[in-house]
Amino acid sequence: MDTGFSFDNLALFLSDRWSEIIDLTVQHITVVAISLLVALIVGVVIGVVVWNKPIPRATALAAAGIAITIPSLALLALLSPLLGLGWGPTIVALVFYSLLPIIRNTVVGLREVPADVLESARGMGMSRTKVMLTTQLPIAWPVILTGVRVAAQLTIGIAAIAAYVAGPGLGQYIFTGLSSVGSRNALNYALTGTVLIIILALVVDGAFILITRYTTSRGLRV
Amino acid sequence: MSDITNTGFLTAISQQSAGVSIELDAVTKVYPGQSGAAVENFSMRIEPGELVVFVGPSGCGKTTTMKMINRIIEPSSGSIRIDGKDVLSLDPNALRRHIGYVIQQIGLFPHRTIAENVGTVPKMLGWSKDKVAERVDELLRTVQLDPALFAKRYPKQLSGGQQQRAGVARALAANPPVMLMDEPFGATDPITREKLQAEFLRLQAELGKTIIFVTHDFEEAIRLGDRIAVMSERSKIEQFDAPARILAAPANEYVASFIGQGAAIKRLTLIPVMDARLNAAVEGVPSIASDVSMRDALDLMVLTGSKAINVVDTAGVAMGSLDHASISALLGGPAKLGDRE
Asked: Would the CB atoms of A125 and B97 count as touching at under 8 Å?
């Protein structure tokens, strides 16, 4: 059996499976986007609650810091008995890993809002909630978004591993490749999955530069 | 908390935009965990439309005292009344919307344009969009920032002096009867500061707000204040009087040391040349306008080395002359008490 690599072979592989490849890419983007959205909401809420309280702040950051050190394969293996296979454990794991950068950047962003801006906001008669919503969060937004960007890089990679619990996305190709080493298309599978994930990471990073630009007040950029 | 009466009161004072009285009665602030009080038993009555300057060294409690009026800092005991109404009975946020507040670092919202910054309080008070825009336009003109040029800019795009003007405009936006100003010109360079002070005096002459102005700069206090409260540790009032009276008769050593050297020259700043008894005009000496202070007159004498100078009216006609003796006579005689105009 021919296990050697050739571009003709790869081209044939891609042309045979292009619609499946697009499907997997869309799945990959979708699972990462859903996870980031959930993590953004959860992370910002946690950040807003703890940012000015030293002990809860240290606790939240330490917990998120420990969470991120758990190997993803181990976490997925632990989650699948509870949540089964597929999208469920994948999203939970990705949210889990996204929390540290998002909570940390929310805390840092909120703490970086100048004290005089907060004092003048209070002095004009804004309630604490109004100060948070109209002043602190908008000023902290670029920093929070940087946290989401870091989380995006992290989760695009981890999502590949989620194929281990039958998670959606390009990881399926990598695992198919790994499990069929020696077969004709093993390398093609692995290579397609890996390269597309790298391209996806670069494209998403570029997208975040644009998102940051268009959702940040011009007054914070100039 | 803001029941009908309180809201009614705030509406009432907001219509008296020209200034209301402020009374502090035995106000004390003790921070938890600190042995001494930051402000101890502070009492003062400020008349409607008066500009009172709190002056004292850093950490003497003058800023704390001021911040208790809009309840940025809550007093530990005592009472504070604005137009006779105890502010502690009002909802703090509603209260603050009716008190202009300017701090040294200005605190403009960096993510909002100058127009949005200035319109903050009117918007919170529920003014219509058109009314807010109109008011913002008017205020930017008042503080001499051309709306066409500055309304759409962000704070970072303004110089320090321009930001300070925007800060004053924002504090004036809802036309509050009371203004609290904490070293508002402290972070600007001397030339800008002098310009801002002059504009501020012109503005106050027009608006007649009740203003509490905190500074550690005695020169600034003399220049701006209708009355000055010289304070020491724990916000103790060492002397509370018109600038001229404090300069002429400091109550004690502490006040005298705070005035520092050159009290006589500082007093001359407050005396218009027309207060002097003019001698007959003389030929061939420098001349000075009649609407300046005695300090400017002395300045001209020292600069030119002339023994006398002529005072001329707007048409340039000499009204009489001044010499060193006429200046000394002014300082030796009873100071023009409290009369700054």
From this structure: yes
